[in-house]
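Q: Structure tokens for this one, please.
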Amino acid sequence: MRNWSSYMLEDLKHELKGSGIDISIKSKKAKADENDSISDERREKVKEAMLHAWTCYEKYAWGHDELQPQTRNGIDSFGGLGATLIDSLDTLFIMGLHEQFQKAREWIANSLDFNKNYEASVFETTIRVVGGLLSAYDLSGDKIFLEKARDIADRLLPAWNTPSGIPYNIINLAHGNPHNPRWTGGSSILADSGTEQLEFIALSQRTNDPKYQQKVENVIKELRKTFPADGLLPIYINPHTGTSSYSVITFGAMGDSFYEYLLKVWIQGNKTEAVKHYREMWEISMKGMQSLVRRTTPSNYTYLCEKNGDRLSDKMDELACFAPGMLALGSFGYETGEAQKLLSLAEELAWTCYNFYQSTPTKLAGENYFFHPGQDMNVGTSWNILRPETVESLFYLWRLTGNKTYQEWGWNIFQAFERNSRVETGYVGLKDVHTGVKDNMMQSFFLAETLKYLYLLFSPPSVISLDEWVFNTEAHPLRIVPRTDVIQVDRQHDLANRFRGRKEGRKTSD
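A: Here is the predicted structure, written as tokens:
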């Protein structure tokens, strides 16, 4: 890792030189290799994997949310919204599988019905269904996708009708009646409440109806009022008061994508004044992240702790492996010195995440890892459900640095999926990454994210350019369009000054 770190940073220096913070994030090095025969071959292998997964879904689970390959049947994990079908639309389009895309489009036009007596997750429905439909619309220009996105968004919208504007996380698609799951004790979840901005802002832009954007941006305004000095929010928020409840701070499950969207809404908004406060909040959170960084012995792997009150836990979810990509993407908004520092941290975390895979007999990562002195990393929860986060970060790091090492790591991970997860009837996860025992589920995000990021890792940087598109947390690319609205924010004091002296927690502890 270290032997090529300085090379990457020198390249970043060259990119940043004299350009300020609004430089293009296209990498000259990645661009130079657009005609790479090895990458072409690997891209075709990933495309064939997608075709295998899709064909099996079409054969055994058409119209259902997800395929159970071992029993060759469909299951409605999300109330029967065709989650895999909608999640796959943009992947099919990007890969040029237009016949399959068109068949899926016809199902959406003729068979997709959101009027279901189903208690839906606002978060999952937004990132998979609203995001998937909007991305298909942005890619194809077909208005059926926009109409359907608006239909489902209108059914979700009452979830934001709380005293604080922090949404409830569950809503019945037919009857409304939003609420929170019992197991949260009435609280809303940070990631579930702060990961709808990209989709709902995009929907307002494309429909010229401001109501979607207003609902989701009010969440950030509310959280901003009591944003802690370290920018790290506990995973539970009171929807009545808008304040955090005593709970875990993590970049893994239930916290992760809140931080991701602070950065990406700034990118989506062309880095303009209207979205400046998103970037400010994100930078504060990244300073706070530094306090969670630790390194193992003996191998010096860098990882992110979780925090509960004043106590740190040496545990990191594979879900948190989105962070290297986020850090690399955000590094281009800093001055050179800080950009180098953030990119270096991104590199180090990516190396750890890659070794989550390499450290097991199957070369597939467990769900989370614990770190003990002298032992480096140990698998905690030992299943693998085809998650995309590590390959997502490899995609960003390759695009932003041009370093082909990230393509090699991604290829190794893809081959491990092919060896362990591919079956005659689709792809399955593993119940245990040590033994390789298979489960019976092809997660929709395997087609939406894992295979898409692998395909783009071996594609020219002009394919879904990061200068023109921003990915939601389900890997659905949304086109960046001009944004001219002015958001009224408190500019009397710099954010850091206003938060100086604030106690760390509002009972702070994803």
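A few notes: The first strand starts at residue 66 and ends at 68. The two ends are 28 Å apart (CA to CA).
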